[in-house]
Amino acid sequence: MTKKQFRAESKKLLDLMINSVYTNRDIFLRELVSNASDAIDKLYYKSLTDESVNLDKDEFKIKIELDKENRTIKILDNGIGMTEEELDENLGVIAKSGSSLFKEMNEKNKDVNIIGQFGVGFYSAFMVAKEIQVLSKSFGNDEAYLWVSDGDSGYTIKKADKDTVGTEITLILKDNTDTENYDEYLESRRIEGIVKKYSDYVKYPIVMDEVETKTDDEDNSSIETTEKTLNSMIPIWKKSSDEVTEEEYNAYYSDKFYDYEKPIKTVHSKIEGQVSYNSLLFIPSHAPYDYYTKEFEKGLQLYSNGVLIMDKCADLLPDYFSFIKGLVDSEDISLNLSREVLQQDRQLKLIAKSIEKKIKSTLEEILEDNREDYEKFFDAFGMQLKYGIYSSYGMNKDTLKDLLLFYSSKDKKRVTLKEYISNMKEGQDKIYYACGESLDKIDMLPNVERFKDKEYEVLYLVDYVDEFTIQALMEYEGKKFANVASEDVSLDSPEEKEALDKKNEEAKDMFSLMKEALADVKSVKYTNKLKNHPVCLSTEGAISLEMQKIMNSMPTGEEVKADIVLEINENHPIADKLKNLYENDKEMLADYTKILYNQARLIEGLSVENPTELTNLICDLMSK
Ligand code: ADP
Question: What pLDDT sits at residue 99?
Answer without folding.
Answer: 39
